[in-house]
Amino acid sequence: MESKMKEKSESVVDMSPTSAVVEGGVQDIYGEDCATEDQLITPWTFQVSSGYNLLRDPRYNKGLAFTEQERDVHYLRGILPPAVMPQELQEKRLMQTLRRYEVPLNKYVALMELQERNERLFYKLLIDNVEELLPIVYTPTVGEACQKYGSIFRRPQGLYISLKEKGRILEVLKNWPERKIQVIVITDGERILGLGDLGCQGMGIPVGKLALYTALGGVRPSACLPITIDVGTNNEQLLNDEFYIGLRQKRATGKEYHDFLDEFMKAVKQNYGEKVLVQYEDFGNHNAFELLAKYGSTHLVFNDDIQGTAAVVLAGLVASLKLLGGSLADHTFLFFGAGEAGTGIAELIALAISKKTNAPVEEARKNIWLVDSKGLIVSSRKESLQAHKKPWAHEHEPVNNLLDTVKAIKPTAIIGTSGVGRTFTKEVIEAMASINKRPLIMALSNPTEQSECTAEEAYAWSEGRAVFASGSPFPPVEYNNKLHIPSQANNCYIFPGFGFGLVMAGAIRVHNDMLLAASEALAGQVTEEHYVKGIIYPPFGIIRKISAHIAANVAARAYGLGVATRLPQPADLVKYAESCFYSPNYRCYR
Ligand code: NAI
């Protein structure tokens, strides 16, 4: 028998006399372990997962939570230790392990490993501990993860489409194992958070955002597709890094870049149809505006940096009116920073005012002023301004520092979107406090070091009168024996519910009215109990409830606008949204 086996093994692969001798272990009958590059083999696998393979399939694996009966039926006896552990206990154990890591990046890696090992447990952890884990799966830790993605890369969590695949993008999309995709988050890695060009390593962003789509917005994980478009990078450090995972070339630009993106957008529609949402993330400023304008009328596209930020900040402004008094049209807004965030927010405020007052948008823009790195945006600069800044070039003499601008414009709200820290100085906040009973100060730049001012500074320099919100979180501040709780204008409030609303209604286009609907829904979740504490956003702990209301309002607007295709319209959209939410609880196997 043994000699027969040996004969067989030698006939399958042509082994040299020395390699045929297997020392120690069992003989390699089929020559699998001896396959070398010139001995071709076919990778093959089972269709139905059971036994060891079931434990290695993250979508179905339950680890120690497999019941006695499931262990019998699915050939798991002996492969698992005897204890049966309910999902809640697994969660408790994992949270304890995570809390022991001191370095946030280690927590990130542990969470990603869990996602690759047991998907439902990963989402259960994320949903039940959202406030604690959000800074790990998303900003700020995800930023560090992207910087080191080459070293921590284990298994692909999304699709990489590089210039090598030019002309074959449709084919590449078909390689992804899931067919029914509802949300794609895509980046080209050019401007990852505040960290600049991270090329192909930007993949952490779509992966993180889609994890939040599932945890906060209820989209099934199998319906989410993270994509990184790799057109090269201008980051010299990465180009010289031996572990860099992307193309080693400078960024393609101009026609080459746009033709490639065009091929991608066409392939997406061809493969997944009209109703798939494409969310652009962390593209360079110039491309972000252009892509949104170009594909907004032909595809279901959304840019979180521009539109999501706008909706979340508008919600805060609407909620703050309860504290400041008046309507949006009664206020004067001054933006410090006129990029994607600043102009996106400004445009949505103008639209909201125009809808409320029936005035043309051009008229509504007049109470909104923007400052960029060259000073106040005024009509005499119009010729040299980028397209997205031109609508804000009002008649005024040039002013080139923020303090003088505040004194000249007398805003009721200043909104920092410059990415430059400590620019809301004591003098600027004191000037705001001398003009307004309750000045609204929004220091939105991230991360914390880039914030235009801290919460403590805003409260202290305004004698505790400021209504304050920031992009990065700040702890509560005690000033004059009163506890002030800063609000956080976190994009995670809006995009998961917004996207889910589009998917739920089968919307085929994004309309600005839907962004207004999302803002209204978020502002509507701020109650008297929150206003008393001076906060203008609801607590993050109830985010699934918030997302359901946002989704319902967005879907209602999609039906109203005639761009919803899922018919008939459900009677109670909030209940319907809640009923469609992905649940991370384990399912029973027959
Ligand atoms: P961007 O690069 O598109 O725009 C930055 C703008 O700031 C440009 O108009 C630039 O001219 C201006 N600027 C730069 N230096 C300046 C200076 N010294 N004085 C005056 N203006 C100056 O960047 P983007 O995407 O608009 O983001 C800006 C900041 O907003 C970032 O820090 C980002 O983290 C933050 N942000 C916060 C969000 C939130 O809180 N939910 C959401 C999105 C962005």
From TrEMBL:
A divalent metal cation binds at residues 281-282, 305. It holds the Pfam family malic. One of its GO terms (cellular component) is chloroplast. One of its GO terms (molecular function) is metal ion binding. It catalyses: (S)-malate + NADP(+) = pyruvate + CO2 + NADPH; oxaloacetate + H(+) = pyruvate + CO2. Residues 306-559 form the Malic enzyme NAD-binding domain. Residues 115-296 form the Malic enzyme N-terminal domain. Keywords: Metal-binding, NAD, NADP, Oxidoreductase. GO terms for biological process: malate metabolic process. Its cofactor is Mn(2+); Mg(2+). The active site is at 138 (proton donor), 209 (proton acceptor). Divalent metal cations. Prefers magnesium or manganese. The chloroplastic ME isoform decarboxylates malate shuttled from neighboring mesophyll cells. The CO(2) released is then refixed by ribulose-bisphosphate carboxylase. This pathway eliminates the photorespiratory loss of CO(2) that occurs in most plants. Belongs to the malic enzymes family. This is Malic enzyme. It comes from Capsicum annuum.
